[in-house]
C-alpha cells in the first residue's frame, strides 16, 4: 500500500496564484479547463509547437508579468525577448521574427515604459531577431500591475535537431548548461528588499546560439528544456513524465551559487524549484555526452555546463530522484504551486 501526499483542497471555480506557477496546479488547470476547450490532443506540452503542415517552422507565445519591472541583470523587456527566443530554441529552432504586445496601466511613467522598450529592442537586436508586429492597450488604474508584455515568436528548426520532451531514453546523460536559481532569487530579493541583489543577478539571456552549438550532434540530442517556472525540479519531472522514464541526478553536481544557496536557506526554498532564465537541460545519448558537454562549454552561455545525472535503465517511470551528498536518495517532486510569484 502506498500513501500519496494529498493535494490541498481548493475551490474549482477559483483560480489560485499557484495555477500560474508551472507545477502540479498549472498542469491541473490545463488538463481540466484549457486543453479540453481547445481540443489540443494528448501529446506532450512542449516549449514551442510545430506549425501544422510545416514541421520546419516552430511557434511559441508567452506573457510576462514580472514584478518589479527592473532587476539586476535584466527587466521585463529583455526578459520577454529572451523567454520566447529560448522557447523556440528548446525545439531546435532559430528565431525568425517576434511580435510584441503591451498591456499598460494608466499612470505608468513614460520614462519607465521608454526604458523597457529600449531594453526590449536592444535584446531583440542582440539576438538577431526582428520585431515585426505588435499591439498596445492601456487599461485603467488598478486593472493591471503597471505593465504586462506578451511576445510571440516564429522560428525555423535546424535540419539536424528534433528534440522533444517525449524523447528521453534509458542511458541518456542529463546535462545542465549553467548555475541554477539566479533569476528567481534576484527578482524576489529586489522585490522584497532582502539585500541579496547586491551579490547576484538574473541569468536572463538568449540560448539559441548555445543550441546551435549542439546541432552537429543531430539525433543524439533527445531533449532540450529551459527550467523557468518551477525550476529544475519541474523541468526534469515534465521530461520524466512525458518520456515515461526514471531520471536520477547527483546533488554534488548541481551548480548552486553561494548567494542563491544563502537566500534559499533564509527563505526556506529548495534551489531546485527556483526559476531560471538563462540555462537549459539537455538529455543526450550516452555516446555523445562528452561531445555535447564540450559543445556547451564552447559558448559563453554554457561555459559552466555540467553533467547532472542520467536516465536509469529501469526504475519507476516518471520519477526523478536525487543522490544526496551523504549517499542516500530522495524523490524530487513536481512543485505544487507558487513559491516565488511574479518572477517571469
Structure description:
- With 344 residues, the protein is of the alpha+beta class.
- The protein contains 8 helices and 14 strands.
- The strands form 3 sheets. It has a 7-stranded mixed beta sheet, with helices on both faces. A 5-stranded mixed beta sheet has the order 1-2-7-5-6.
- Helix 2 (76-89) runs parallel beside helix 3 (110-127).
- The N and C termini lie far apart (40 Å).
What coarse outline follows from CA principal-axis ratios? globular
Hey, roughly how much beta strand do the residues contain? 15-25%
Poorly predicted regions = none
Distance between the termini: 40 Å
- Report the structural category: alpha+beta
Into which percent range does the helicity of residues fall?
25-40%
Gyration radius (Cα, Å) is 19 Å
Mean pLDDT level: 92
Strand order of the largest sheet: 9-11-8-12-10-13-14
Structure summary, number of beta strands: 14
**How are helices and strands ordered from N to C?**
HEEEEHEHEEEHHEHEHEHEEE
How many helices?
A: 8
The description of the largest β-sheet is:
7 strands, mixed
Name the quaternary structure.
single chain
Spell out the key features of this protein:
344 residues, seven-stranded mixed beta sheet, alpha+beta
Concise account of the structure shown:
This protein is α+β, with helices and mostly antiparallel strands. Helix content is 28%, strand content 24%.
Amino acid at each position: 500500500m502506498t500513501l500519496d501526499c494529498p493535494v490541498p483542497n481548493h475551490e474549482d471555480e477559483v483560480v489560485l496564484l499557484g495555477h500560474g506557477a508551472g507545477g502540479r496546479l498549472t498542469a491541473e488547470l490545463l488538463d481540466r479547463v484549457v486543453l479540453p476547450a481547445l481540443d489540443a490532443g494528448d501529446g506532450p506540452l512542449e516549449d514551442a509547437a510545430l506549425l501544422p503542415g510545416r514541421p520546419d517552422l516552430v511557434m511559441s507565445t508567452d506573457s510576462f508579468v514580472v514584478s518589479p519591472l527592473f532587476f539586476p541583470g535584466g527587466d521585463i523587456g529583455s526578459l520577454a525577448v529572451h523567454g520566447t527566443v529560448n522557447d523556440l530554441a528548446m525545439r531546435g529552432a532559430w528565431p525568425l521574427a517576434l511580435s510584441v504586445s503591451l498591456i499598460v496601466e494608466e499612470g505608468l511613467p513614460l520614462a519607465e515604459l521608454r526604458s523597457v522598450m529600449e531594453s526590449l529592442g536592444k535584446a531583440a537586436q542582440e539576438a538577431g531577431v526582428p520585431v515585426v508586429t505588435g499591439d498596445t492597450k492601456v487599461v485603467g488604474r488598478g486593472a493591471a500591475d503597471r505593465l504586462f508584455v506578451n511576445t510571440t515568436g516564429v522560428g525555423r528548426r535546424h535540419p539536424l535537431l528534433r528534440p522533444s520532451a517525449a524523447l528521453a531514453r534509458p542511458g541518456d546523460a542529463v546535462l545542465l548548461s549553467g548555475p541554477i536559481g539566479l533569476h528567481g532569487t534576484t527578482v524576489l530579493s529586489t522585490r522584497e528588499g532582502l539585500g541579496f541583489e547586491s551579490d547576484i543577478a538574473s541569468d536572463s539571456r538568449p540560448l539559441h546560439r548555445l543550441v546551435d552549438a549542439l546541432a552537429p550532434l543531430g539525433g543524439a540530442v533527445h531533449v532540450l528544456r529551459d527550467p523557468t517556472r518551477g525550476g529544475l525540479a519541474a523541468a526534469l519531472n515534465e521530461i520524466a513524465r512525458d518520456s515515461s522514464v526514471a531520471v536520477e541526478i547527483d546533488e554534488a553536481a548541481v551548480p548552486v551559487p553561494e548567494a542563491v544557496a544563502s537566500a534559499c536557506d533564509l527563505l526556506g526554498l529548495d534551489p531546485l524549484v527556483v526559476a531560471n532564465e538563462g540555462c537549459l537541460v539537455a538529455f543526450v545519448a550516452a555516446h555523445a555526452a562528452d561531445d555535447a558537454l564540450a559543445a556547451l562549454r564552447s559558448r559563453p552561455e554554457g561555459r559552466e555546463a555540467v553533467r547532472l545525472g542520467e536516465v536509469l535503465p529501469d526504475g519507476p517511470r516518471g520519477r526523478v530522484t536525487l543522490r544526496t551528498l551523504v549517499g542516500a536518495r530522495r524523490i524530487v517532486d513536481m512543485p505544487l504551486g507558487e513559491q516565488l510569484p511574479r518572477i517571469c
